[in-house]
Design brief:
single chain; 142 residues; Immunoglobulin-like; elongated; signal; Secreted protein
Length: 142
């Protein structure tokens, strides 16, 4: 009997501890001050075609990396990007734009989501921040 009550108490304490440490809402897990990748709505083009992707980052330190993922309306990953402060090309800048390709069946008409994560060093500590997803639409030409 005593063993059962001890395990019940341990289970309750574990559940309470997890409830206290988890964010109270999904919005609490986002930091939108790190910048934005805001893809404009665009007209769907046939075959493989290029689409505009502008970005603007505000990293808290000079040592940063950004990872972005684009998902189509079916929630399938269709593109990913990687920026790094140490890159010697356009992908090392805190603002700019590029053209990315979407092809065929992976580019249906509809609402796409763009998720963004920033990883940065402050001294010897490594931090990861997530931004709330942004969205854009591919629409059919009329």
């Amino acid at each position: 009997m005593l063993r059962r009550s001890r395990s019940a108490v341990a289970s309750i304490l574990l559940a309470v501890g997890l409830a206290v440490t988890l964010p109270s809402s999904p919005a609490a897990a986002y930091d939108n001050d790190i910048g934005v990748i805001k893809v404009p709505n665009q007209i769907r083009k046939g075959g493989c075609a290029g689409y505009l992707l502008p970005w603007s980052f505000t990293p808290p330190t000079e040592d940063w990396t950004v990872v972005a993922r684009i998902r189509n309306p079916r929630r399938e990953g269709v593109a990913s990007f990687y920026w790094d402060a140490n890159a010697g090309n356009n992908m090392g800048r805190t603002h700019g734009h590029l053209t990315f390709q979407l092809c065929g069946a992976s580019a249906p008409v509809g609402r796409y989501s763009v998720s963004m994560q920033m990883i940065y060093n402050e001294g010897r500590d490594l931090y990861t921040l997530n931004r709330a997803p942004t969205h854009f639409r591919l629409v059919q030409r009329r």
